TrEMBL record:
GO CC term, one of those recorded: membrane
Top-rank EC class of the record's enzyme: oxidoreductase
Provenance organism: Rehmannia glutinosa
One Pfam entry name: p450
Protein name (record): Cinnamate 4-hydroxylase
Length: 127
């Protein structure tokens, strides 16, 4: 229910069931991100600085998960919404979802593509 509420607000999109392939991908990547953020590997370098060199493998995994998540958001949400916006007639009175406002800011030059992806990713994490 939380995913559907959040993704409806953000992207005007919902998942048909818990077996939806995109829902399963999101759930798996969000779970992996949470697991990495809550593991002891994440913060032992903060408490024992001499052990920081051993974080390389962990940081590599974190980077891979981040790249997969950003690519997923780009492919399934941002690019899809851009295509939809380019095919629909522009109507300022119509109801817009959050990504429409974010993409509008990008078109005005207020933010760039990376900012769009990180905003979407951060909102997803917050949800």
């Amino acid at each position: 229910m939380m995913y559907n509420n959040m993704y409806r607000i953000m992207f005007d999109r919902r998942f048909e069931s818990e077996d939806d392939p995109l829902f399963l991908k999101l759930k798996a990547l969000n779970g992996e991100r949470s697991r990495l953020a809550q593991s002891f590997e994440y913060n032992y370098g903060d408490f024992i600085p001499i052990l920081r060199p051993f974080l390389r493998g962990y940081l590599k995994i974190c980077k891979e998960v981040k790249e997969k998540r950003l690519q997923l958001f780009k492919d399934y949400f941002v690019d899809e919404r851009k295509k939809l916006a380019s095919t629909k007639a522009t109507d300022n009175d119509s109801l817009k979802c959050a990504i429409d406002h974010i993409l509008e800011a990008q078109q005005k030059g207020e933010i760039n593509e990376d900012n769009v992806l990180y905003i979407v990713e951060n909102i997803n994490v917050a949800a």
